[in-house]
Amino acid sequence: MRIDLHTHSSVSDGTDPPAVLVRRAHEAGLDVVALTDHDTADSWAEAERAAAEVGITLVRGMEISTRLGHASVHLLAYLPDPTYPPLARALADILDGRNDRVPAICAKLRSLGVEITEDDVRRRAGDAAATGRPHVADAMIARGVVASREEAFATWLNPGRPAYVDRYAVPLEEAVALVAGAGGASVVAHPWGRSRVLTPDHLERLAGLGLAGIEVDHQDHPASVREQLRGLAEDLDLVATGSSDHHGLGKVDHDLGCNTTPPEQLERLLQRAGDAASASGRTTPALLVP
Fold first, then answer.
1. Rounded to an integer, what distance in angstroms lies between the CA atom of residue 237 and that of residue 239?
2. Which of 107, 115, 235, 256 has the most CB atoms lying inside 10 A of its own CB?
3. Does the structure show a pLDDT above 90 at 290?
């Protein structure tokens, strides 16, 4: 069984509409795919219909923008109830922060001689629930300023680069509690990828607060890091997941199924989600099995 638990559609910063993403996951030989758009469940309904048509198991999720101190950390949430009021409010605040950030980034770019407007970004974002830096990068590509999203981030948009603008994100520990309160299971995404702000002590504390797992097998993790994280997950009794973090054409070298989650780890994750749903008393999304 091939299982990919981290993908993005055009509802956030991927390039494929949800239905197209699900069909491509099926064509890539996946048996299970999780759709985890940034800070929104808006892609779920379209993905559900496509999953039923092609016969693939769909895990509904999202990737929540969180903060540990001044550092950004992404938290994957699987099968939460998106109508849980505290979670819904937090997601609305995050999306407002994403949308408010774009005018400030565009203004910075223009002050630096890069003529990018908010309309340019909106045209690239399409039906996305919120605009963000990847859509700014796409507008820069269309204008011929950079050749790729990677170049846009490395040269202009990352922290410390000239057009970077900060935005609101939920404190990480609060986000873990919100996901549990919504009846879902949380997994820290690519924790030791581009930075290592999460120490083993941090992860141990989060496990005590209800964190369900760690994303171990990810393209940003070399083999030595994967081995360390897998051992840490075992020591802390956390689920060890693997995924592509697929963004369509928005990320190179993140093809669907390039990393996968073992079936026994998926079972453990679903058990954690089921336990959280029972504890919360929320009506949470079911696993969609063909």
1. 7
2. 256
3. no
Rounded CA-CA distance 96/100 in Å is 6
Helices (H) and strands (E) in the chain, counts: 10, 8
Question: What's the confidence (pLDDT) of residue 78?
Answer: 98
Question: In whole numbers, what is the pLDDT of the chain averaged over residues?
Answer: 96
Q: Within its chain, how far is the Cα of 250 from the centroid?
A: 13
Residue 214 has which token pair? Answer: 């760690």
Sequence-distant (≥ 6) Cβ neighbours of residue 39 within 8 angstroms: 12, 62, 63, 64, 65, 91, 94, 95, 98, 129, 130
Residue 157, token pair as written in the block? 């948009």
pLDDT in tens, 119-146: 999 999 998 887 899 999 999 999 999 9
The CA-based dihedral angle spanning residues 199, 202, 206, 208, taken in that order and rounded to the nearest 10 degrees: 120
Q: Are 252 and 246 spatial neighbours (Cβ–Cβ below 8 Å)?
A: no
Indicate the SS3 state at residue 50. helix
- List Cα–Cα distances, 277 to 86, 281, 284, in angstroms: 15, 6, 6
Q: What percent of the chain has pLDDT over 70?
A: 100
Handedness of CA 274, 275, 276, 278 (dihedral sign): positive
Which tokens sit at 159? 């922290």
Q: For 14-65, what is each residue's pLDDT tens digit?
A: 999 999 999 999 999 999 999 999 999 999 999 999 999 999 999 999 999 9
Domains and CATH numbers, the chain: 3-84+169-280 (3.20.20.140), 92-157 (1.10.150.650)
The distance from CA 149 to its chain's CA centroid, rounded to whole angstroms, is 17
- Residue 71 CA to its chain's centroid (Å): 16
